[in-house]
Amino acid sequence: MSEPSRPERDRPWVMRTYAGHSSAAASNELYRRNLAKGQTGLSVAFDLPTQTGYDPDHPLARGEVGKVGVPISHIGDMRALFDQIPLDQMNTSMTINATAMWLLAMYQVVAQEQAEAAGADPQAAVRALAGTTQNDIIKEYLSRGTYVFAPGPSLRLITDMVAYTVSDIPKWNPTNICSYHLQEAGATPVQEIAYSLCTAIAVLDAVRDSGQVPPERFGEVVARISFFVNAGVRFVEEMCKMRAFVQLWDELTAERYGVSDAKQRRFRYGVQVNSLGLTEAQPENNVQRIVLEMLAVTLSKDARARAVQLPAWNEALGLPRPWDQQWSLRMQQVLAFESDLLEYEDLFTGSVVVEAKVAELVAGAKAEIARVQEMGGAVPAVESGYMKSALVASHSLRRQRIEAGEDVVVGVNRFQTTEPNPLTADLDAAIQTVDHDVEAKAAAAVREWRERRDADPRSRDRAAAALTALEADARSGANLMEASLEAARAGVTTGEWAQALREVFGEFRAPTGVSGSVGVSGGGSDELKAVREEVRRTGDELGERLRVLVAKPGLDGHSNGAEQVAVRARDAGFEVVYQGIRLTPDQIVAAAVAEDVHLVGISILSGSHMELVPEILAGLRAAGAGEVPVIVGGIIPDSDARALRAQGVAAVFTPKDFGLNDIMGQFVEIIRSARGLQTTAASSRG
């Protein structure tokens, strides 16, 4: 008797790994290796100077080049990044926001060059391009911090890209509304749904009102809006969240924008599962967390992700190695190809439990969307600080639940006993390291590029004319894509393109959300009350209130941890100085001296700690404030932590140090030690 044939299977989602580091050539080698392993799309990580519009030789790029992604300074780098990778056959996601137009322009030019070299039609190659530019600037003000311009000009850039791609690159997703980073910043599922849909409303309204797309083609605009979401370990709630997203997006696009084609109203999303919940303690537990989070966005056919990228088990320790990324890719492949998931219709249709949870999330999100729209929409809600304060408050409550043991994190606040971990026996070998000379090589290379370009009068004049035209179009209101394409062909650099627009649009600093955020309620726990008493007692002994400067140097915009430290320090009785992100070491030193602080807390998650922290220490000594203790927090390998302490850092905190009250207690002890007062506990971190 023959065995019955297997049911027909759905096509799997696009499988990606988020990757890029060091240089375009090194990243190209990694991409080609990953594609050979069965990865079906690319997800490009750009370094922070590229994301914020600086060349590698700019002072603000110090310590950041090639750390969290690949530096792309000009069209030559883009050619090298995609060498031997046919772009007209690829599906590429680019995590890029403020400079998204510039990276898309270079991507298009490289695709045209590839087609010309192959004797194919360049315009056909452009129309075949498939992929996504993240390009959600609202969430940059709320969580990631890689914005450059104010909301108005930023929406102008997005609007121009949407209009251009609908016409010229019809398979491209010109903006990718990101709820992922909202959850990383502490958003509840309701806030995640509401704030990302408010962002989508702001973008769609801006495109509609610009008049660049005829009303009869507006359904094409809606069809090219995609989303990038987060999936946490509460995978039932997360799956219901995705079904709520599907329902609300369908209603919104039909009712507000009159899109009648159900296919154009489809909620299209990719996912990176939760990195906020990955732990440094017992990091092997991250594997099962990642699998559960992947199930949240794949189990429900009616709300299944179109693309999935998974973090690696060791991302709370540092940069994953190729083998770690392969492990995460294999998780996707086992689910898609070994399991029978793709053989069935939706597993949850008709579930009373699921329908009730979805209805609850929909109702909550609608109420919050209405609240934001009453303020005038997402942009006013950003400019007023409302959304940022709400996220900081939600994140603070989450931290409090973990500290109180209400939310269990295995290996962190419960089940902490562990066997020796063979995966981390050699911590320095458990993560990828970037060559120390990457920055120097990139800075020298971009200088050589500009010098060689400008040595030829025709090339120099073409680049200068391209920048002049870019500024003129920015002032006139013309669509900026054509000027950006010419700038790419003319050899303009990333820093030059961004500076031309800075001349017209200026720069922007978003509200931090700290001053208006709700901290602990009811006076806090007994532990916090004890710390508050120690802060008061120490202040009395010194004859002044204790002041702490919390600072983020460099281009690292991931400010969630710094904000939580600042809020808890305020709740503990410290006077807190927090000026937000993107400060130079000189600015931090100047603030520490001007505010006469008792302690400086530096937060760095981008890997630039070994370059920037020593500069801050040297600056304090030069300013006569060398006795002010400096502590550092971030994703810092143990060997680097030892080196920082040897240079004079008083303590180093990493993600395993989740107890904020304990950290506040150590702040007091460090200040007392520095001021020659009797201490009651060791203040150093092992």
TrEMBL record:
Residues 545-674 form the B12-binding domain. It comes from Pedococcus badiiscoriae. The keyword Isomerase applies. Its cofactor is adenosylcob(III)alamin. Heterodimer of an alpha and a beta chain. InterPro entries: Acid_CoA_mut_C, Cbl-dep_enz_cat, Cobalamin-bd, Cobalamin-bd_sf, MeMalonylCoA_mutase_a/b_cat, MMCoA_mutase_a_cat. It comes from the Bacteria. Belongs to the methylmalonyl-CoA mutase family. Keywords: Cobalamin, Cobalt, Isomerase, Metal-binding. Pfam families: B12-binding, MM_CoA_mutase. This is (2R)-ethylmalonyl-CoA mutase. Gene3D superfamilies: Cobalamin-binding domain, Methylmalonyl-CoA mutase. GO terms for molecular function: cobalamin binding; metal ion binding; methylmalonyl-CoA mutase activity.
